[in-house]
Structure formats: C-alpha cells, structure tokens
Design a protein that fits this description.
The structure is a homodimer.
Chain A: H1 12-24, E1 45-48, E2 53-62, H2 80-103, E3 108-118, H3 124-140, E4 147-155, E5 160-168, E6 189-194, H4 199-207, H5 211-218, H6 234-247, H7 255-261, E7 266-269, H8 274-283, E8 287-291, H9 293-310, H10 314-320, E9 327-332, E10 341-349, E11 358-359
Parallel strand pairs in A: 3-4, 8-11
Antiparallel strand pairs in A: 2-5, 3-5, 6-9, 6-10, 7-9, 8-10
Helix pairs in contact in A: 1-3, 2-3, 4-6, 4-9, 4-10, 6-9, 9-10
Chain lengths: 371, 371
C-alpha cells in the first residue's frame, strides 16, 4: 500500500484502480459473478436482470456542495486517518442515497457504478476511504446481492462523484410516486414513514460547529455562562449519534419490498426533508399533505436536548432536515402500518395550499433546492 | 422558452428539467414506454431487459478537462447560439462515448441517464444544447431503442456531467476484451477496426488554433510567407470535417453486433487512441500488437494536407489520437473483415516489447492517461 501522505497523482490510473478494487472485493456478492455477467475492467459491465427489467438511478455529488473534505468540528484532525474518514463518509452517503432510491421503487439493489473525477493531489487515503465507505454501506445496509460492477476515473480541479445503482423487482410491479390509475381521486390515504427524520440535519449542525464551541455548548468546557438549563450528559451521546447519521445515513433496505407487500399505493424516499418530499409526493397526485403534529412533536422530543444546546429548533430538523433517507409510503386509510413504519399524516384532496402542498408543519426551512 | 442570456439560476430545478425533457422527448423511442417500465421523475427508472441481463457503462466529463465552454478557433462567437453549440458538442460526445461502450460489448443501447452538476450562472442555452446533443447523438447514431430514462441535477462551481448508458445483448454472449478461455495461446489473430482514426485529434488541432492563425495557415489570409507548399482549397473542407468529428464523433452503432456475428473473439472501442487501446487489448491477452504500417500510411494520407498546414504529423494523429470511437475487434487470422471493418494489424505472442505492447507504430504520443 502507498505510504502516508501519498496522493493519487503518484499512483497513476492503474494504481488508483487497484485501491478501489481491493475495497470493492469486500462486498458480500463480489465473490460470486454469475455466468454471463461481466464486472469492471471491460468497455461495459453485464449485470443479471432475472425480472426481465431493471431499476436504475444516478446521483452526482460535488465537493463543497454535497460533501466536504473537512468539517469545522474536525478541523484539528489531519493526516491519512482523517482523509480516510472523510472519504468513507462521502462514499457511504453516495452509496446509501442511491440504494435508498432503488429501495423506494420496491426493488433489491444489484449493482453500483462509480464515476469519479478528482485532482492528482487527492490523498490516496481519501480514495481508499471512499471505496471503503461504498463497500461498507453495501455491506452494513444489507444489500446482499449488490456488486460494484463498473465505473470511470477522470481528472478535475475538484472532486466530483456520480454513483449509479441498479436493482431487481423480483417480479413485482414497481411502486411509483403516483398512485395507480385505478385509485379513486377521493379515496382517503395515510402517509407512513420507515426510519427517523431530523437526525442527519442535527448531525450537520453538530459537524458545522467548530470543535471548541461545540464542546462548550455541549457542556464539557461550559462555565455556566449560558442562561439555558445545562444540557445533561446524554447530549454528548446524542451529538455523536446525530453526527454518525449525517456521516453514515442508514436507509432501511428491504422496507420498500415490505411496504409493497403491505399494499403501498405510492412510495418515495426522503432525501430533501419530510416537509418537501411529502409535499412532492402529494403534488404528484394532485393532493396536499397534512402532517400529524403529534408525530413531529414525538420525533423532535428525542432531539430536543441537542437542539437546545446548539440553539436550534428540533421541530425544524424533523420537518425540514434532509439526508435521513427514510421511506415514505402511501397506504389506504386505516391500514395498519407495516413493521418498521409509523403513520405520520395523510394526503388530502385539493390543490396544495401551503408551499409544496404541506399543511400542519412548523414554520421554517422548506428543505433543499439546487438552484 | 427563456429569453436570450437566461441562466439556469433563474429557472429553478423544475425549469431546467422542462428544458431537458423537451429535448429528450425527441429521441425515437421516447414516444413508447413499454408496460412495466418507468421513465424520469420517480426515485428510479425501470428499463426493460428482455435478455435477462443488461450491459451498463458510465463516463464522467469535467469542464476544461474533457470539454470546453469555448474554443480558441470560436473565440469570436458569443451569445446563445454559441452557448447552444458548445453544449450540443458536449452532450453529443458524452452520449456517443457511452453508446460506443455499449456497442463494444456487442449490445444495443436501451437507456441513458444524465447526472449534471453546474453553477447557477450556466446559460440556459448551453443546457438546452447539451440535451439536444444527447438526443441528437441517440437519433443520428441510430440508437433506435434508446430512451433517456433518468438523471440527477446538482449545483457546483463548474460543470461536470456523468452519463450512464445501458444496453441489451439480445441473447448473444457479451464480447469482452479478453479472448475466450477456449482460444489456444498460440492461435494467430488479426486486429480489425470499424471507423477512422486520427480525425478527432486533427479536429482538436483545428479547434485549438486561434481563428486568425487558422485562416492564415489554411491559406485564406495567406500572403505566401510560408515556405511550405500552399495548401489546396480542399484543406478548408478537411479542417471543417475534422472539427466536426471532434465535436460530434460518430461511433458506428451496430458494428459490435456485426463483429460478434462474424466471430469476433474480443472487442474494445478506441477512446484514447489506437496505439494505446490496441496495446491495452493486447496486454489484456498477454500479447503484443503489430500495427500494419501500410494502414497507418493510408489513413494518414487523407489527413496529410491538413497536418502540413498546421505543422502536425498526420501519422501521430492516426496512431495516437483519441475520441474517434472506432471499434477494435480480434478475429481468427485470415478471417475476411466484416462489412465496415478493415484489417489494421495483428496480435502477436509474447509480452509487450514497446510501451503498451505496441510495435510498428510511429514514434510520438501514446494516447491519454488521466493521472
């Protein structure tokens, strides 16, 4: 392995590929390439599609927009270990958000492709971390049948990566954002969610706070100068958990299949925040969302001590915070939520009243828009 | 449509999507989404894979590395038409190189995904041109069954795009870079090529020459000060043709199927130059390449007047120039080349002697490496 401080410019393309391949060989399905399939290294890969169709999605991430090489809270860390950790978080998140999109169609992930452009000065440890993060997400999120099947390397002044993921529907119809045509326009429907909301946004707030200020706010170096009640010892653990969810979001793969079997009429994953994405789901069906204030309160209560310490609003995190990759599903009203899901509101008839078709949500941010 | 000088920051994400969708609706297959498939707008797309497998490839392109917003020879052009033309060339090339990879496995293109990150100041005309270029390549290169099935938009300080293409093998085995296991190590094999070589490199030289200097070199504003023989009138046409090949490379889709039927043992498309890619093909099989000097001379002869005017070596263009996206195929020695292919050399036993396993090639550049 290249030494500490090595950069990709010193390895050459073949050397970088070796670093990537070593990590990608650790995903569970990598040891078994079925007859007739082709992995990385050729003009293109060949992936099995037993269903006679495949699900496919792609996401691009740009340095300093969608990920960072360093976080303020981590500014004191330097060297290969910090580079590896930063790359790992980026790779994990890129893989997780694509696997989440595959899951949101009711499919099982089968393949990942990585298109990566980066400067020659990029630390090898960062690239190694990126690959380990991708492989780690595939492994730990339980994408047992998913292989890293291909990719592309290019040079650029800054790092950009685009991940494409594919999936298999196993003979079931895909569950879309729009309700099937047969559903009457006035049929009452519930909105259920698998996964938590607001944790990744809370983690972002933790990671965006400089380390010294963070420790003071969390009470470690606190001198009692703040007028707010001193946060309890649990707030440190909460901050670490939230940061972990921002670094390594954990979409529940398989939840799409579960919801589909339970009769989900429509599904969508939450990448830009419950407020915004539920609003999109409603708008796609000519409806509006009514979020259950009780759900927001209950979800926010857990994050409340951390929000108080950081001077933030936990309800805003829950309603507007993105990157938790929960799964929204629409069920006929009154259907008991399948295992892992909770009812968070309903879709009502009528055109969107509030922005993005949401009512019942707290005032505040409306999630993420690129332009 | 947005007015002249509009930028994507003024349109918002939904507005940019509308610009893209309008162009993507013009590809031949876009009017017909088979039952059970899903196009853009959901968490993921669903694409038919009648073969029970699919071919998939991805390529990333970064501004000022893999494409440019302006070329020196075009520096006098400004405004929406120039932006559209620059975007068109970028979109066409991005699509063409991915369709070429699908073709090189012996498959027929079925889908394209576009992941695009760009600044808010990007001209709408550039994005419109990009989409028109992608759709134009799909249409003009004859990818009749190929739809634009999905994508992702993000913001960044500069433009990066990653295109993913998928294909169907129609029940045939994929043709890989490596010879099938059953082929004896000492079996003599020929190397054949579909398409021309060197034209895109010649076009790059044309586009990289400032307009005034270019006109003088091509003889329009020439005062006879040059000692070289005056280039004939044909050299202008040659320059325009070459520039067209750099802007809009034309891989022959279907050539992969043709070669596979003719018994091709291995295939690979030429993206980084014949010298380099034939060397890779040879090295992947523990062989070395002997290029036919007669083929290089004949191929270079056509470009010779342009090379003389620009002070370049036509033989270098042919041997080392990339981005023509010809298709290299390996056939049992003596097999008549299938329609559209010419014999350009052979693969010989033994480890690579020259760099990249090539002998018989002129001295000079060795094609493109990213790091």
């Amino acid at each position: 392995m290249p030494g500490c401080g090595a950069v990709v410019g010193g390895l050459g393309e073949a050397g970088v590929l070796r670093v990537l391949e070593r990590r990608f060989a650790t995903v569970p399905a990598a040891g078994d390439w079925p007859e007739g399939t082709v992995g990385p290294g050729d003009d293109a890969a060949v992936v099995a599609a037993p269903d006679g169709r495949f699900v496919i999605t792609t996401d691009a991430m740009a340095q300093d927009r969608d990920f960072r090489l360093r976080w303020p809270a981590e500014a004191s860390r330097r060297g290969a270990r910090a580079d590896f950790a930063a790359g790992h978080a980026t790779g994990w998140k890129a893989a997780a958000q694509n696997l989440s999109d595959v899951n949101a169609m009711g499919a099982t992930p089968t393949g990942i492709l990585l298109a990566l452009t980066m400067p020659g000065r990029t630390p090898v440890a960062w690239v190694d971390g990126l690959a380990a993060g991708i492989a780690g997400a595939v492994r730990h999120l339980g994408a047992r049948d998913c292989r890293v099947v291909g990719g592309d390397l290019g040079s650029d002044d800054r790092i950009t990566l685009a991940i494409t993921a594919t999936g298999d529907l196993g003979g079931r119809p895909p569950v879309r954002r729009t309700l099937p045509r047969g559903v009457p326009a006035d049929r009452p429907v519930d909105l259920v969610l698998c996964g938590h909301a607001g944790w990744s946004a809370a983690g972002l707030a933790v990671l965006d706070t400089p380390r010294a200020e963070l420790l003071e706010r969390l009470g470690a170096g606190g001198t009692g100068s703040s007028a707010a009640p001193a946060p309890g010892p649990g707030v440190h653990r909460l901050a670490a958990l939230a940061a972990g969810r921002q670094w390594r979001p954990r979409p529940v793969l398989g939840s799409g299949r579960v919801a589909a079997r339970a009769g989900a009429l429509a599904m969508m994953d939450v990448s830009d925040g419950v407020l915004k994405d539920a609003g999109r789901l409603a708008a796609a069906n000519g409806r509006r969302v009514e979020l259950d204030p009780e759900w927001i309160r209950a979800e926010a209560a857990v994050l409340e001590p951390l929000a108080r310490a950081l001077g933030a609003d936990a309800g805003d995190w829950v309603a507007a915070g993105g990157e938790d990759y929960g799964l929204l599903a629409v069920l006929p009203a009154g259907t008991p939520p399948p295992a892992g899901f909770r009812r968070i509101g309903r879709l009502l008839l009528g055109s969107p009243g509030a922005p993005d078709g949401v009512t019942g949500a707290p005032a505040g941010g409306g999630g993420w828009d690129h332009f």
